[in-house]
Specification:
The complex is a heterodimer of chains A (323) and B (334). With 323 residues, chain A is mostly helical. Chain A has one domain: MetI-like (MetI-like fold), CATH 1.10.3720. Chain A is 72% helix and 1% strand. Chain A contains 12 helices and 2 strands. A two-stranded antiparallel sheet of chain A has the order 1-2. The radius of gyration of chain A is 24 Å and the shape is flat. The N terminus of chain A is likely disordered. In chain B, the strands form 2 sheets. In chain B, strands 1, 2, 3, 4, 6, 7, 8, 11 and 12 form a 9-stranded mixed beta sheet that branches. Chain B folds into 2 domains: 151 residues, D-Maltodextrin-Binding Protein, domain 2; 148 residues, D-Maltodextrin-Binding Protein, domain 2 (3-Layer(aba) Sandwich). About 3% of the residues of chain B have low confidence. The chains are: A mainly alpha (323), B alpha/beta (334). At the A-B interface, strand 1, helix 5 and helix 10 of A face helix 3, strand 7 and helix 9 of B.
């Protein structure tokens, strides 16, 4: 958790001559390092925008919503990848958050003390698994399960229903938006769970003890004390997970079906921004509209991620820092 | 300090003795054969090849920027672009693309498909395996009542360029609506990454059809199909059928060796064959490295055929190799 450290007062040393020169050099070096990060960030945004400019100019704002991606006709639109990126990430959040909450709740309130550390460490280790591993696991384990059991069952059972039936139609490929969201959910679970556990631990024990003293059950303490106290930080943690889900590339590429068609079915194939850029980049010639469109997609992803992370940063700031 | 000087001196002395390095980048399709050639050539003529399989588009970009000694591309670069960038283009080996299917109980090369049927399958117009148009050419094969699930390469690839070139050649409708490129707007089906991704997806989905490079299909014993060629005969994907296609190509008429081996007229030709190309600067910055590249490929032409055939590639006809040697002499300035 980014628990803010009270910024220390400038430490003034009664310095000799050589010391003051050293101080000045060090201060300048530190300042340059700090500014460098900002310059780097700005340079990435600017270069992505300049690279994507021919595409923005050719297609205008329609680029954002256009669902056509046709390299032969030189028509490019971000509609499908943007939709795919948002829908998989949101679905992943919907699947991961209840589970993460359960983990955090168990670890902070229910689990025996000796058990908390190993489980906590396991969750952190889960966060360190490279995404390609999740991709391969998804492709070779989850996709066959989905195509043989889960999808045919759901398609048969729900596919013909009115209203929601459209969400469960199509051939059972195993890959698709739903599978991608499932893999993403597993990947972001440790981030959200670890954040939740950490913020739950920031609740002053005296609050909880008072509630228990009044005869509250564990669940009542969780619902009425812990969650209200940490609500903002919990949402911040979820946004952090969302940020990771938005930019995930390899794991999604393996299981999403990689199709630039808009699909209403959850089992239909789709594409995400990160995935299409990774797949199409090697075969894009410099100066082509396709390359420019890929850079424009990168710019869009950057903006989306930036917004999400900015929100999470704001929310994760401890309550004290805001007042 | 002394050790450093000593180390530097050793490096300088060792320099000329070490193998000469040449760098190339581009197509992934010929990467396995270039790697083997590189190993063999290092031992034989002391030229060490550093080849990076970054994709044909990337290879073209790199050689146009002159960041490598040669570029490699599956799709031939068109004439004006070659002239503009002062590049010589020549072929190295050929490869074939084959359809693979997952139909329970049906053996390799039992199913016979025609080009237009294949195009309509990928267009989503034929969606069942027991469709009358498939059954027409498959008397005696028990085609199941299964939905067809077309699988294609999701990553931009030379294989897709070759396959869609074939579909465009045999189906006017495909040519109009989709066309041929390293990635296209697929009307139906699912994408998978790489040959291995396509193969694995086809294996996992009953009723799936995909396309992969022949080497990949052979090594993994995938269920391939027969195709009808231009002469009207059904052919199985064999080395003989690929060579036949290579021989019936119009090498003499092709500018910059950009020969079209798709749907050739030979009676025993496999219809989806293509060459892969090297792009070499005509005005090399470093003549010695350019010489080394030529020496490497000259060696590969003379001695690399067995390695290429072993990896299921098709070596170039002798006459083409000789023509390329003439081009090296006439077109590369020193």
């Amino acid at each position: 958790m980014s628990q803010s450290v009270a910024s220390p007062k400038p430490f003034v040393v009664a310095s000799g001559k050589s010391g003051s020169a050293g101080d000045a050099i060090f201060a300048a070096a530190a300042k340059i390092s700090g500014v460098f990060v900002l310059v780097l960030l700005g340079a990435i945004i600017v270069s992505l925008f300049i690279g994507g400019w021919p595409s923005f100019r050719a297609f205008g704002l329609r680029f954002l919503t256009e669902a056509d991606w046709d390299p032969v006709q030189n028509v490019f639109g971000a509609g499908v990848p943007v939709y795919g990126t948002l829908i998989t990430s949101v679905l992943a959040i919907i699947m991961a958050v209840p589970l993460a909450f359960g983990i955090a709740f168990y670890l902070t309130e229910l689990a025996p003390i000796w058990f908390r550390r190993p489980v906590g460490t396991a969750i952190e280790l889960l966060a360190a698994v490279p995404s390609i591993i999740y991709g391969m696991w998804g492709f070779f384990m989850i996709v066959p399960l989905m195509s043989q059991y889960v999808q045919p069952t759901l398609i048969d059972a729900l596919g013909d229903l009115p209203l929601i039936g459209g969400l469960f139609q199509g051939p059972p490929f195993g890959t698709g938006i739903f599978t991608a969201a499932l893999i993403l959910a597993v990947m972001i679970l440790p981030f959200i769970a670890a954040t939740m556990r950490d913020v739950f631990q920031t609740v002053p024990p005296v609050f909880k003890e008072s509630a228990y003293g009044l005869g509250c059950t564990t669940w009542e303490v969780m619902r009425s004390i812990v969650i209200p106290y940490t609500r903002v930080s919990v949402v911040g943690g979820i946004m952090l997970g969302l940020g990771r889900a938005l930019g995930e590339t390899m794991a999604v590429t393996f299981v999403i079906g990689n199709t630039n068609r808009l699909s209403t079915s959850l089992f239909g194939p789709g594409n995400t921004i990160a995935s299409i850029v990774a797949l199409e980049f090697p075969e894009s010639q410099s100066g082509s509209l396709k390359l420019s469109s890929l850079l424009a997609l990168g710019f869009i992803l950057f903006v989306i991620s930036f917004i999400v992370l900015a929100i999470s940063r704001t929310l994760l700031r401890p309550a004290g820092a805001k007042s | 300090m002394k050790t450093l000087t000593l180390a530097l001196a050793t490096m300088l002395v060792a320099g000329p003795v070490a193998a000469q390095q040449i760098t190339g980048a581009g197509a992934t399709f010929p990467a396995p054969v270039y790697a083997k050639w590189g190993e063999a050539a290092k031992a034989a003529i002391g030229i060490e090849l550093n080849y990076q399989a970054i994709g044909s588009g990337g290879g073209q970009n790199q050689i146009m920027n002159r960041t490598v000694d040669f570029g490699a591309s599956d799709a031939p670069v068109d004439g004006p672009k070659l002239t503009e960038n002062k590049l010589l283009q020549f072929p190295t080996v050929m490869g074939a693309v084959v359809p693979i299917v997952n139909l329970p109980g049906i053996e390799a090369n039992a199913v016979k498909l025609t080009g237009p049927v294949l195009a309509d399958i990928y267009a989503g117009k034929i969606s069942k395996w027991n469709d009358p148009r498939i059954a027409e050419t498959n008397a005696g094969v028990a085609l199941p009542n299964l939905a067809i699930a077309p699988v294609y390469r999701a990553d931009g690839s030379g294989t897709t360029y070759v396959f869609t070139s074939y579909l465009s050649a045999v189906s006017a409708d495909w040519k109009d609506k989709v066309g041929a490129a390293t990635s296209v707007k697929w009307p139906a089906g699912n994408g998978a990454k790489g040959n291995d991704g396509v193969a694995a997806t086809v294996k996992q989905v009953r009723g799936a059809i995909g396309y992969v490079e022949n080497a990949y299909a052979t090594q993994n014993k995938l269920t391939t199909t027969q195709l009808r060629n231009k002469a009207g005969a059904f052919v199985a994907p064999t080395l003989a059928a690929f060579s036949s296609a290579a021989e019936s190509g119009d090498w003499k008429g092709a500018k910059n060796y950009a020969v079209n081996l798709i749907d050739t007229a030979g009676p025993t030709s496999w219809p989806i064959v293509s060459a892969t190309f090297i792009l070499l600067p005509q005005d090399p910055k470093d003549a010695a490295r350019s010489h080394a590249v030529i020496k490497f490929f000259d060696w590969a032409y003379n001695n690399g055929s067995a390695i290429a055939s072993g990896l299921e590639y098709i070596p170039l006809p002798k006459s083409v190799q000789d023509a390329v040697r003439v081009s090296w002499k006439s077109d590369i300035k020193n």
